[in-house]
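Hmm, how's this folded?
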Amino acid sequence: MSDRLHALKLQLGFGVDEAVGDTPVDRYALSTLDAAARQTHNAEQQAKDSRTRPKPNQPSRMPSGSSQDALESASAANSAQTLEDLRATVAAFEACALKRTATNLVFADGNPDAKVMIIGEAPGADEDRLGLPFVGVSGKLLDRMLAFIGINRSSVYITNVLPWRPPGNRKPTQAEVAVCLPFIKRHVELAAPKILVLAGGAAASTLLDTNQGISRIRGRWHDYSSPGLADPIAALPTFHPAYLLRTPAQKRFAWRDLLALKLKLQEIG
């Protein structure tokens, strides 16, 4: 059987029962033409880019999330003397591009005088809509987890590293985290909790300044320090509730972390 006859039988097997043109089309020739067209287009685009690219001696504005923006946020955060001041400062801050795409500022929820402060990574869609952290599906799981050890949302203080939702719930960039980091550090200093619970790898690695994954550092107590704190704060990294919803098998480790939190609360009275 010839190759052409074999190809015809194969097409019949796929359900092809009619031709769509009067003359055959050489697809191999078209592929060659397409490749040539792509090469021509790429060459034209490179030439255009070289004409529009700024010259080395031309000043350009630093993008949002630059080191200059981080310096501005650090200065603004350090000027806040109360949580109300900090909230107003964050609300007025314009150097983070996330603010322009978010619906609401998500500052905090719960009791600011609580012994336990829970910090996640960033708001999701529900949090962005309501302006409160951990109010979506993962927030409901967090409420149930806290109830397991006899506490509730009114006896903890909850916030995120980022106060604005990244578009589409994407992972925040390093520059965005750098800009928002002074705010969350000042937030911890002003709240001055006895215990920090760092929910998820992003919050844990950011505030503990470590490259280790959450699976390696969760369940172990760490000391969190910053210039505005009189003494270090006991910090417990654990899995984020959103991760537990995707990976239910890890809930047994989160349960151990909750028991460690309960024991620590009993120790500090």
Remarks:
- The chain has a mean pLDDT of 86.
- The longest strand covers residues 233-238.
